[in-house]
Design goal:
This protein is of the alpha+beta class. The protein is built from 4 helices and 7 strands, in the order βαββββααββα.
């Protein structure tokens, strides 16, 4: 017998799902995204909030994954002091870099500005943003010495989306903005003519196993 597919949703309470959370999840599921970005639900984290929904995504070009990430929607009907709201979005974005790009001392600041810029470009308002930008380099020795050195950028962030009618944020727009960030980190060209001035990372040098 086939196991049921993980929907990425966790009620956390075993009862009825609140309408605001259900509406936000429905919006995430119906969002229209760039064809190069593959998105699917995944198991959400436990104990971060009474209700959670999670998506994982990859920016795909042929047999290459240019970037990947995870977006989690959290909901606490009682509100959360640190969030200053009832919803919270949490993300992880990763991509490999060319060595010269990884050595740029301004890279962390630029990557953080890509996140805030992606939200601003969609006209989204939000509060309490926080996060980290980490870059790491791997060098291979011994039996792995033939492998070229590799560098990776990782963005971890969270923010509180502004709630609209019925206490529901524009979850679909936040997802589209997050996918804009993924595409930018992956080095894809801008999706629209108005974004022609956006600077993106160079694409990866070779395929990455998924």
């Amino acid at each position: 017998m086939d196991e049921p597919k993980d929907t990425g949703e966790d009620s956390g309470q075993g009862g009825a799902t609140p309408l605001p959370f259900r509406a936000a999840v429905d919006a995430l599921r119906s969002a229209r995204l760039r064809p190069q970005i593959e998105v699917e639900p995944t198991r959400p984290p436990k104990r971060l909030a009474p209700f959670a929904y999670a998506l994982e995504a990859a920016v795909v070009d042929g047999d290459q994954d240019l970037a990947d990430g995870r977006l989690v929607l959290l909901y606490d009907p009682a509100g959360h002091d640190a969030w200053r709201g009832t919803f919270r979005l949490v993300t992880l974005v990763r991509a490999e870099l060319e060595p010269e790009m990884a050595a740029d001392p301004l890279l962390p600041d630029v990557c953080w500005s890509w996140l805030t810029g992606a939200l601003a470009a969609r006209g989204l308002t939000y509060g309490e943003p926080s996060g980290t930008v980490t870059r790491a380099s791997s060098h291979y020795f011994g039996g792995l010495a033939e492998r070229p050195s590799a560098s990776q950028i990782e963005i971890r962030a969270s923010w509180t989306p502004r709630e609209g009618l019925g206490g529901v944020p524009d979850a679909a727009a936040h997802l589209v903005s997050w996918c804009d960030l993924l595409a930018q980190v992956a080095g894809l060209p801008p999706a629209g003519p108005g974004d022609a001035s956006v600077v993106t990372l160079p694409q990866r040098r070779g395929p990455q196993s998924r």
